[in-house]
Amino acid sequence: MTLRIIDQPVVRQLLTMPVCIDLMEQAMQQTAQGETLQPPRWIMRLPGDRGRGFGLMPGAMKEPAGFGAKLTAVYPENGAKGLQSHRGIIALFDTETGAPVAIVHGGEVTAIRTAAASALATRLLARPDASDLAILGYGEQALQHLKAMAAVRTLSRVRVWGRSQERAEHFVREGRALVDCAIEVSPSVEAAVSGASLICTVTGAAEPVLAGRMISPGAHLNVVGSSVAAAREIDVDAVARSRFFVDYKPSTLLQGGEFLAAKREGRVSDDHILGEIGEILIGRKTGRQTADEITIYKSLGIPAEDLVCAHFLYTAATEHGLGASVDFS
Fold first, then answer.
1. Could you tell me which of 74, 212, 214, 303 has the fewest CB atoms within 10 Å of its CB?
2. What is the DSSP string of 55-85?
3. What number of helices (H) and strands (E) belong to the chain?
4. Interval 146-176: pLDDT, tens
């Protein structure tokens, strides 16, 4: 038995955004159909904290058949150093023998698949004519979301906001190489989202940076940056005003900070979660109903997303002889 090691360059070569969006569709459908096992994510705060944590996300899928887990260290300060904030591995196991067959660069998969899931949600929930994009945050996920939004909508303008003017300007320079439209830095959150039909929040904020009163009718939001119950990027008004969709309802009820805050304040109940993205895909739930309503996709990330990517990468890398292969009998 051999173990294939799939590093960052191989992930980048094989896991293109269009490919990953298709994989997210597969993962979301299986989740909605009950064909996955996805226990709650386990997170441990590291000594000294500073927002650092270590997470374990185990899971199993029916098709492609496989099981495994992602082990991830989260270091929020890494972005300022030019490093990924999520660093770890995805371990994939064979269902016939139980042997580990692949170790995949977890940070790169997370970066791409998170944005690809937002692209899928945008394709399903945003207005067909949505083209004015606001991105709150300027790190790795900001660039990935720029690529993801451009894959599902024709962008006419992009505005970015972040606390560091220098880093926001650096994002603009990088972004201009990715999309053929105007990209500019906004001086405030409100200026960035004014009139925007697409909004992606990809910050490390613990408290809301975006208020519901700032959001224009008809906008679609991908709320991505917060992944623990204690953190939230948008306020309770934004949650309450929206048609609210998620990747996986059980995880949102445990760790979706924005939703849980609105629930604590009595603004919403569990029924405010109208469905999972996979349920829209299989026709069980309805997404956007009118042009003027605000839709939100709350992303926490689920093991099925990592496993379907890991299996694709393992198969493709084996076929093309990419990555390193070691004996692991």
1. 212
2. EEEEEEETTTTEEEEEEEEE-GGGGGGTS-S
3. 11, 16
4. 999 999 999 999 999 999 999 999 999 999 9
Would you say 115 and 147 are in contact if contact means Cβ atoms under 8 Å apart?
Answer: yes
Provide the token pair at 20: 């990953």
Q: Which domains does the chain have, with CATH numbers?
A: 2-110+304-327 (3.30.1780.10), 125-301 (3.40.50.720)
Residues of the chain with pLDDT under 50: none
Q: Give the per-residue pLDDT at 112.
A: 97
Q: What is the pLDDT of residue 328?
A: 87
Mean pLDDT, all residues of the chain: 95
Using only C-alpha atoms, the chain has a radius of gyration, in whole angstroms, of: 19
Q: What angle do CA 221, 308, 146 make, to 5 degrees?
A: 30
Distance between CA atoms of residues 1 and 326, nearest Å: 9
**Alpha-carbon distance 258 to 255, whole Å?**
9
**What does pTM read for this prediction?**
0.95
Kindly tell me the sign of the dihedral angle through the C-alpha atoms of 93, 35, 273, 210.
positive
| Six-digit token string for 61 | 């899928």
